[in-house]
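STRUCTURE REQUEST FORM
Protein name: lysozyme
Source organism: Frankliniella occidentalis
Requested output: structure tokens
Priority: standard
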Amino acid sequence: FAFFAEVFVSNLNAACLRCLCFSITGCNATVGCSKGYCGPFYISRVYWADAGKPVFPEDDPERAGAYQDCAREYNCAANIVTNYMSRFGRVRVCFSGQQQYAPPVSEICLGCICEAVSNCNQSLRCTGDVCGVFRITWPYWADAGKPVLAQDKPEDDGAYARCANEPYCAARAVQGYMAKYAQDCTGDGVVDCYDYAALHRLGGYGCRGNLDQAFQDKFSRCMVQVAQLNGGQVN
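Status: completed
Returned output:
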């Protein structure tokens, strides 16, 4: 038998927040507002509203500029992210007999893959045959199960590009791809973030090959920084 349930995932600690911030803007405290996004977490007004419109003490959410002021300041912005994840931080888990299936790749690992492949540049769209912050191809998206945005169907014209260009949908594609091809690419006896990075870069049938130096260097730096922030642990 099998059934699905929505399970709350609560693992957004300080190290995870820092990693998310780093993967998006390098945690640049001088980032202002550009193209509808503000601050070190690159938060949109819609995201802020979904998070409950957090503001500074004594401030009014209805005040013009309240969203921008909060999103630009790290601690207030981190509160926005925490609230947003408290509302939406659930995964769909399949229970089959005694087994449970959840997305294989942690948010920290996704962040480092994103950082290595594109510097997590959210302004990236489609160039040639790759799209979005994870530089996803159509075959990759298809292998991942063709995830789409809420208003789309997989067969809709442009559904692939719209998903790959939207970071959260693109992350779902990465999760789907890894769930399909998960394997010990590095030969160390475990399947971890290093294997997922190799799978993402080299594909499900070539992940035992050699990573290009630029990708490997960026990914390794990110993993080291995350480990330092997280007391030596990388999820």
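Reviewer notes: The first helix runs from residue 14 to 25. Residues 1-10, 91-101 have pLDDT under 50 and may be disordered.
Form closed.
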